[in-house]
Amino acid sequence: EWSNEIGMNVTQGYPGPFYNLTFKKRNIFRGLENFELNGRIGFEGVAAATSSGGVYRSTEAGVNASLVFPQFIFPFREATQIRFGKYNPKTRLSVGYSYSDRPEYRRASINLSNNYTWQTARNTQYSLSPVNISLIKSTETAAFRARLRQLDSLGNYNLVRSFNPSFVSSMIFTVTWNRNYGTYDRNAVFTRAQIETGGTSLNFIDPGFITKQGLQYFKYLRFNLDYRKVRILNRWATFAYRLNTGVAYSYGANHSLPYEKFYFAGGSNSIRAWRPRRLGPGSVPPTLNTNMTDDGMFDYQFEKPGEILIEGSMELRSKIIGFVDGAVFVDAGNVWSFRNLSSESTDASTQKGNAQLDPSTFYKEIAIGTGFGLRFDFTFLILRFDIGIKVYDPARDEGDKFVLDKVSFFKPYAKQDANGNFYDIREPVIYNVGIGFPF
To answer: Mapping DSSP to helix (H, G, I), strand (E, B) and coil, where does residue 79 land?
Structure first.
């Protein structure tokens, strides 16, 4: 079977086209096995990693080959296969190559994985991936590399290390419970719990072999719990809410995670009043060295990785007319680190805010946003437009964190007094574009 797919993808609030080509060979070994070969190329609009505004084109390409067996294979024996047969077992072996090209860098990775899935009930699925290995290499522009070194000296040690040549290995176990989720016309509940341990394979091979190849490696533990519920109020209205939490802890020598394993907040499927990946950590202002731009606005130049995530959303959805639906929502959350970034800075006296999670005060650092939006239901897809409005910004100074009364739907601005201090700052709203519901 050959299939071709052309569509639109939205990753960070900006749409872009993609093309997929898939080849599938069924019953390849005469035992109901499937072979799948998939190629993909896409051009996506993304927020710049190191600039305060504008949209940049990102080219994403990749190829992936998979073998899917309708039973557990190695190391399971035939007697075990018979006993597990009623659980709809499957084994997937995959190898792939992915490539990203952005104005600041190029990033390529080779991936190897195997995965076992099974079901104990119609609504419950388990997944175990004992082998997930990635070899990652990045090539940065000189200007971007200089920025990474600058951030490292200011305490943001996560970015620069994530662009070093890397060997990433992990084991992942996931439990998913799904009752009607995805139907949108019935009450539904979705829960997914995932635990991941990174660097486990290094207990069986010598880490020195990895470092001799010029690669860094990571050892970490990561847990994520995602809970969603949709309740049908009447034929016109639906109420949905979500709670998403996660913790990732590095115990390796470099005290860092692979960049893809950090948590982020902000964006069209997260806290919609903040730009993608730009919220947090904690109450730290958007930049570590300069808090504001020349016009008095916060300077959201850099992505903000965190090791702890707490976020939740509530959304009331209602039909308006025909295929057009509306929604009002409230989002809240943030990311934190196990260590305070300012303690890593070479000039800690100039830093503000707190990135480290403090159980006694973290609730004061939960950002709150609200907003409204439209959904265009074309049956084959749902196109979504949301306007996010900040309500409570933990990065602001004490007494100035409530910002709902400072919203600006047009160009943001700030007044400046004779001493050069900014006041009457008007916060910009954030416009989000998405495919499908946010949760």
So the answer is: helix
Map tokens 């994520």 to a residue: 224
Beta strands (DSSP E) in 48-184 are 55-69, 90-101, 105-121, 124-140, 166-179
Within 8 A by CB and 6+ apart from 327, the residues are 315, 316, 317, 318, 372, 373, 374, 375, 386
Bond preceding residue 281 cis, omega within 30 of 0: yes
Quick one: tokens of 159? 């970015």
Characterize 245-279 residue by residue with b for buried, 16 or more Cβ atoms within 10 angstroms of its Cβ, and e for exposed: bbbbebebeebbbbbebbbbbbbbbbbbbbbbbbb
Instruction: Say what the alpha-carbon torsion angle 374, 224, 259, 330 is, to the nearest 10 degrees.
Output: 30
151 touches 288 (CB < 8 A): yes
Q: Which residues pair with 191 in a beta bridge?
A: 177, 227
Instruction: Supply 93's token pair.
Output: 């072996």
Helix (H, G, I), strand (E, B) or coil at 1: coil
Tell me the C-alpha distance between 400 and 44, whole Å: 36
Mean pLDDT by 10 residues, the chain (439 residues): 86 76 93 93 71 69 95 69 79 95 88 94 93 91 81 67 87 95 87 94 78 89 97 94 96 84 93 90 71 60 88 96 95 91 44 82 94 91 92 88 85 68 74 88
Q: Which residue shows structure tokens 């100074």?
A: 397
What tokens were used for 163? 């662009």
